[in-house]
Structure formats: structure tokens, C-alpha cells
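Q: Could you fold this chain for me?
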Amino acid sequence: MGEERPLLVRDIMVYDPVMVTPDTNVVEIAKIMKEKNIGSVIVVEDGRLVGIVTEEDLIRRVLAEGRDPVRTKAADVMTRPVVYVSPDTELKEAALLMARLGIGHLPVVEGNRVVGIIAEYDIVRLTPELIELLYVKGKFKSTSGVEVE
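A: Sure. Below is the predicted structure, expressed as C-alpha cells.
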């Protein structure tokens, strides 16, 4: 039997995240997010990570400020500098980083290339399976009388 290893970012990250350039306007970004059902886009320039635009950025930095979404560019509203992790970062460490900084999306960078992204949703989605695994391994006993199969 192989040795167990911790869960890594690469195990759950979304590969090939959606990327835009700093001059992409906010209307286009919102359309991309809607079409792809995503909550953020990564902003790159010359292949380098320069920012991230989230739904929250669109609300707080465009709508709440009454900016013209056609004239407002990614560069005007993106979060920078961007906090990121490598694919080999332990998932627990990435989740704690996200919680500590209050961020919901974390780009994944290998070398100087963006290779993925993880979101709170990706981590939360794992929770039921992880809890079930702990019960199966006998780490916890059900106190509710509901047995986990």
C-alpha cells in the first residue's frame, strides 16, 4: 500500500483558468463570468499574472462607484498584487491563507506561469467527502445516530 500524502492544491484546482488582459472592459469580463459560470478572471500581461477580477470587485469597484462598465478596464478594478500559491502547496495551507486574508479565489502559479485557480467553492465541495472519509477511517463516531456508509 502506498504512503498517504496530504491533499495538494493540484488535486482540486481548476486547470486552464479564464484569463483576460488589463485592457479588457468590465462588460466583457461580466459576460465571460456569466457564460462560463465563474466568479473570477485572472488578469495577465505578457503571460505574467498581474491581477484578478472577482464578482465582488465588479460590485464594489464598478457598480457601487457608478463607473461606466464599457469604459472601465480590468486594470482599473483588479486586485493587485495577487496572492497566489503553487500547485504543490498543501490544500490545508491554501485554505487557511484564503480564510486569513478573506479571499475567495486563489490563482495557482508554477514558475511564472498561471496553471490553475482554486475557489472557496472547490474546497467547500470537498468537505462532505472528507468528513465521510474521517468517519470511515474511524477518526470520529457519529453522535447523531446517523451512520455514514
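A (continued): The two ends are 23 Å apart (CA to CA).
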